[in-house]
Amino acid sequence: MTAIQEAPEAVTTEPTTVPATVLPSREPAPETPEQPRRVGGNTRSDVLALWGAGASGLSVALLLFGRIAPLSGALGFVVTAYLVFLVIYAVLVGLEHDGPAVRDRVMTVVLWSAAALLFTALVLVIGFTVWRGREALPHPNFFTQDMQNAGPLDPLTLGGIDHAILGTLIMIAIALVITVPLGVACAVYLNQIRGRFSRFVRTIVEAMTALPSIVAGLMIYATWILILGQQKSGLAAGFAITVMMLPIVIRAADVVLRLVPGNLTEAAEALGASRWRTVWHVVLPTARSGLATAVILGTARGIGETSPVLLTAGYNTGLNADPLHGPMVSLPLAVFTFVKSPEPAMIARAFGTAVVLMALVLVLFTIARVIGGRGPGQQTKRKARRAARASQRDAQRFAKLRSPALSLPFREASASAGTDPRTGENL
After folding, report:
1. Using one digit for the tens of pLDDT, what is the confidence trace for 153-185?
2. Distance, CA of 96 to CA of 420 (rounded, Å)
3. Partner of 385 at 20 to 30 A CA spacing, among 44, 221, 291, 321?
4. β partners of residue 419
5. Are 168 and 330 in contact (CB under 8 A)?
6. Using an 8 Å Cβ cutoff, are 357 and 331 in contact?
7. What CA–CA distance (Å, rounded) separates 148 from 161?
């Protein structure tokens, strides 16, 4: 038996092809232009988020105070609704913007809310005062008569506050005459002179800012009336009001003068100006509007004082135009006296006097704004015309000096003689 051996079949091995790895394209992606974040104005989404958050805060507060929690009280309701409103508003804004934008929107709402609250309080105070004084203000005798012949039971057609208006004007005029020069001079000393006692003076001024008004009245009463033996008068009340106004004016003027750029004073001194001329012609005109604001703040503090006037000026129901002799009354003191009476006519006079006091403060504020309201570099038309004429004269003078008709030998002879080549005057 023959064994037939078959040759094994040749195994052919073909090389396996590995798929090539496809790398991502390294071409740079087209850059999208950056969109700057809008920092001003409100878009439609902002308005919708604001109204939606307000409605949500109000609804949550109604649920908490009416259904879910046993809460009560109008103040708690308003605070809860406002806090929920802020939280929901922050969430809604965060859906479209990043963290800085959310903080910016929320703080804007908080600041606007605070401003609206303060404005509402101001309107309520002024409106309530005017409404309660509406009965006394329409009568002309309220502004032209005094209370010497009128009593608590007399109608509003008899008596007035002309003595209080005149007394307030006299007292505040005395205080302003003393306060404005002393306050501005002290502020200039603290900023421009800076002597060895400047820190001590600044500390005393800051301490006197919080001085109670009754202490100022007692000081003038003890020195002017008890020690010097003078009588109660409008002058003594003006001194007491000055003590209250002076630290306010100094402090505010000090802050304003600090804001004057130092390069202005350096340039003036580099041109050869003395310290006095630098202060008078550069520093004070630059800070004029701020100094007017300082005077307004001091006036608003002094014109509403009652206790110093009561201690130093006394009380008088008749008209007294002499600030050196006799008692004198002011508008705040008249309000204090009228409101103590339980009679409706006297209470109406008190609120009418308060309205007149607010109107007087507004008039003084307007006058101060007109006097010092122009900022640095702003000139009136008269000053602008005068400066233009001075510039024209300077241009003509320089043109004459450059004239070719003026020969060089004549110029040299004039210069050696020390005379002006055109006028012949000594230089």
Report:
1. 888 888 888 889 999 999 999 999 999 999 999
2. 77
3. 291
4. 426
5. yes
6. yes
7. 10
Q: CA geometry: angle at 158 spanning 155 and 161, to 5°?
A: 115
426: β partners: 419
Cα→Cα distances 158→169, 184, 263, 351, Å: 23, 44, 62, 16
What is the DSSP annotation of 55-76? HHHHHHHHHIIIIIS----HHH
Three-state secondary structure of 207-272: HHHCCCHHHHHHHHHHHHHHHCCCCCCHHHHHHHHHHHHHHHHHHHHHHHHHCCCHHHHHHHHHCC
Cα separation, 157 vs 176, in Å, equals 34
Which backbone phi and psi does 246 adopt, to 5 degrees? -60, -50
What structural domains and CATH numbers belong to the chain? 44-132 (no CATH), 144-373 (1.10.3720.10), 403-427 (no CATH)
Centre a 10 Å sphere on the Cβ of residue 173 and count the other Cβ atoms it contains.
13
- How does pLDDT run across 215-230, given as a tens digit for each residue? 888 999 999 999 988 8
pTM of the complete model: 0.70
Pairwise CA distance, residues 324 & 230, whole Å: 9
Q: Which two tokens stand for residue 409?
A: 């030998």
The answer, yes or no, to whether residue 88 has pLDDT greater than 50, is yes
Residue 336: other Cβ atoms inside 10 A: 18
CA 276 from chain center: how many Å?
28
